[in-house]
Design goal:
Structural class: alpha/beta
Number of strands: 14
Strand order of the largest sheet: 3-2-1-4-5-6
Bound molecules: nicotinamide-adenine-dinucleotide, uridine-5'-diphosphate-glucuronic acid
Distance between the termini: 73 Å
Length: 458
């Protein structure tokens, strides 16, 4: 079969895999190949057990794989064949040298750019899909212009806004697709080619264009605003707990103001995920680089409040349980950083688990999708930790339950049965405010929600 276009994606992760599966699904006339340096990951993409859990992903991959969607480790071949290359490699925070802990570590990205340069035998469009610092496209253009033959590269910015757990829905019905480009005739032509791909399923008015630096910056700003909103509501949970106000009532009242809206107002043990913290710290680093210290401090506080929230949650557990956790068994309900994913990167559960272990508590961790990642995250930690998928079995004989992830299944458990099996007095710390607190209290639990007065039998 001959295809109209050859699309390559470098990086088969949480973004590369689902994004390319959606393009392949919506554009059967394009050949889409996803490559990665990690052979295990590629083998998993080619198996029945995909490397990431995402509702709806299995069906799309199974219906396109081997037809117009391919997963491979043959990066050089993929580069040679492609007309359009999406770069979707990871961009973690630098752990060494200048900017350690804040700046983006761009080694994966630079290796990719140099490999594209080395292997290309024809001109190509390069699409930044990963989240990069502002002006990365400039550096990418510089590297790609080192070519000694007639080959030409046009670099576009096309940041991804999908959220894990809802990736397929977000990709199929995006609020917007953003494409940043320069205004040269060649770049505008490249931009039109990318618009043509998305036009196969995204309404034209949702595909917006901007200058390339605005596009790169918009991605960082979007994540900063989203995280800021959660940090804002979480900062008031502390206030509510002191003043006997109820954070859910406050969120409802402010969310009905159409200027504010009601989304992203769920208070929690803290936000997690691989991107919010790294993207904000990267933004903070860039602000400082430009001498904008006040702006940097403002956004850094969004991260500080999140650290404070996680710390506060751990301290609530300690003080509620009579200031000692030594030898007590605590069951963590959920380990993923949010529901409907097995991803645990920067999950607040990692922080809480470590704090509780430091207090010499014994941990039992349950999660429908994230136990394998939890084991990796807590590997080598000196403490007693067990991993049990069934929440009834996991909480059996425990002194306390702490809800870390808002999995739907936790809302409908038989808490009478759970209470009977636990050590008394039994505690529940609801880090997501998803349970029926009054009912739990009536069963006999001492209940500690977030941002609401506790319900205790003492
Ligand atoms: P990930 O770690 O899941 O995947 C990245 C993949 O790139 C890995 O499999 C890695 O092996 C591969 N890789 C690294 N260097 C490579 C190279 N030189 N050649 C080939 N493959 C290489 O990361 P992710 O979560 O998919 O994130 C990727 C980017 O997308 C990041 O910049 C992130 O900020 C951004 N982003 C992520 C999300 C999300 O929900 N995870 C959403 C929007 C944007
Ligand atoms: C986030 C953004 O929502 C995406 O638009 C963006 O593309 C992505 O980051 C990225 O760049 O990686 P994601 O981290 O997958 O997506 O998930 P979110 O739904 O944003 O949740 C992030 C964290 O905030 C989770 O820990 C979640 O539980 C928490 N959260 C979310 C709350 O505590 N309260 C809320 O009201 C919403």
């Amino acid at each position: 079969m001959t295809f109209k276009k050859n699309i390559l994606c470098i990086g088969a992760g949480y973004v590369g895999g689902p994004t390319m599966a959606m393009i392949a699904h919506k554009c059967p006339h394009y050949k889409v190949t996803v490559v990665d340096i990690n052979p295990t990951r590629i083998a998993e993409w080619n198996s029945d057990d995909l490397p990431i859990y995402e509702p709806g992903l299995d069906n799309i991959v199974k219906s396109t794989r081997g037809k117009n969607l391919f997963f491979s480790t043959e990066i050089e071949h993929g580069i040679k064949e492609a007309e359009i290359i999406f770069v979707s490699v990871n961009t973690p925070v630098k752990t060494f040298g200048a900017g350690a802990g804040m700046a983006a570590d761009l080694q994966y990205w630079e290796k990719t750019a140099r490999q594209i340069l080395k292997c290309s035998e024809s001109s190509k469009i390069i699409v930044e899909k990963s989240t990069f610092p502002v002006r990365t496209a400039f550096a990418m253009e510089r590297i790609l212009s080192l070519t000694e033959n007639d080959i030409h590269f046009d670099v576009l910015s096309n940041p991804e806004f999908l959220a894990e757990g809802t990736a397929i829905k977000d990709l199929e019905y995006p609020d917007r697709v953003l494409i940043g480009s320069r205004e040269t005739p060649s770049c505008v032509k490249a931009r039109d080619e990318l618009i043509e791909i998305y036009s196969n399923w995204v309404p034209k008015d949702r595909i917006i264009t901007s200058n390339i630096w605005s596009s790169e910056l918009s991605k960082l700003v979007a994540n900063a605003f989203l995280a800021q909103r959660i940090s804002s509501i979480n900062s008031f949970t502390a206030f509510c707990e002191k003043s006997e106000a109820d954070i859910n009532e406050v969120a409802r009242a402010i969310g009905m103001d159409s200027r504010l809206g009601n989304k992203f107002l769920n208070s929690s043990v803290g936000w997690g995920g691989s991107c919010f913290k790294k993207d904000i710290l990267n933004l903070v680093y860039l602000c400082r680089h430009y001498g904008l210290d006040e702006v940097a401090n403002y956004w850094e506080a969004v991260v500080s409040i999140n650290e404070y929230q996680k710390e506060r949650f751990a301290l609530t557990i300690l003080s509620a349980m009579f200031n000692t956790l030594a030898g007590k068994k605590i069951c963590l309900f959920g380990f993923a950083f949010k529901a409907n994913t097995g991803d645990t990167r920067e999950s607040p559960a990692i922080f809480i688990a470590k704090k509780l272990i430091e207090e010499k508590a014994e941990l039992v961790i349950t999660d429908p999708r994230a136990l394998n990642n939890a084991k990796i995250d807590l590997n080598g930690i000196d403490g007693k930790i067990s991993y049990i998928e069934d929440p009834y079995e996991a909480s059996d004989g425990c002194d306390a339950i702490a809800v870390m992830t808002e999995w739907e299944i936790y809302k409908n458990l038989d808490f009478e049965k759970i209470y009977q099996s636990m050590v008394k007095p039994a505690f529940i710390f609801d880090g997501r405010n998803i349970l029926n607190h009054k009912r739990l209290f009536d069963i006999g639990f001492n209940v500690f929600p977030i941002g609401k007065p506790p319900l205790t039998h003492f």
